[in-house]
Amino acid sequence: MTDLSELADHEKTLLLLDDDKPFLTRLERAMEKRGFIVTVADSVAAGLAAVKSDPPAFAVVDLRLEDGNGLEVVSTLHEKRPEARAVVLTGYGNIATAVTAVKLGAVDYLAKPADADDVVKALLADAEIKPEPPENPMSADRVRWEHIQRVYELCDRNVSETARRLNMHRRTLQRILAKRAPR
Q1: Which end of the chain has fewer CB atoms < 10 Å from its terminal CB, N or C?
Q2: What is the DSSP letter of 106?
Q3: What is the pLDDT of residue 135?
Q4: Dihedrals φ, ψ of 131, to 5°?
């Protein structure tokens, strides 16, 4: 699947779920220009209601929302319409949540701010074609940070338990967790 014009109208439906209103408005306009029939939601509750009433063919879902986790919407969409293609957007990316998103039915996981062309490319990507390797792969510092984040999530965000499992001093771990992700 590479071209939206080949699809029927009911196959062009798109749910945009994000609590960042200016970003949501810009993305809505950009996706409408590209031929999608867009429904917007700014909360998990509104997203779930939209999916339950009329499951869209596509969805772009923010991971962290004020009233919960966008992965609930991805999971519900996958149950209601298994062939639907969802992309998860987040400003707080880590490997653990990316893996969870894919297991729940997302086809891709993009860091914010993602531009509309990247979102469309992810939504319409052919599942059979493997993507090119990244031009700028993660640095060793970023890989380390991602590993620490994954263990932290697996330990239910318990700093002491995470530090014990990583064989690291608790205060050192707290300093690492307080910093932004390295590039």
Answers
A1: C
A2: E
A3: 66
A4: -70, 155
Domains of the chain, CATH where assigned: 4-124 (3.40.50.2300), 140-178 (1.10.10.60)
Q: pLDDT at position 1, please? A: 45
Beta strands at 106-111 and 85-90: parallel, antiparallel or unpaired? parallel
Predicted model pTM: 0.67
User: Which residue positions in the chain have pLDDT lower than 50?
Assistant: 1-2
Q: How far is 51 from 159, CA to CA, in rounded Å?
A: 36
Per-residue model confidence (pLDDT) at position 150: 80
| Number of Cβ atoms within 10 Å of the Cβ of 95 | 16
- Three-state SS at 165: helix
Closest CA to 40 of 50, 54, 30: 50
Burial track 13-32 (b if 16+ CB lie within 10 A, e otherwise): bbbbbbbbeebbeebbebbe
The DSSP result for 3-70, as a single string, is -GGGS-GGGSEEEEE-S-HHHHHHHHHHHHHTT-EEEEESSHHHHHHHHHHS--SEEEEESEETTEET
pLDDT score of 65 = 83
CA distances from 137 to 66, 109, 121, 130 (A): 31, 16, 19, 16
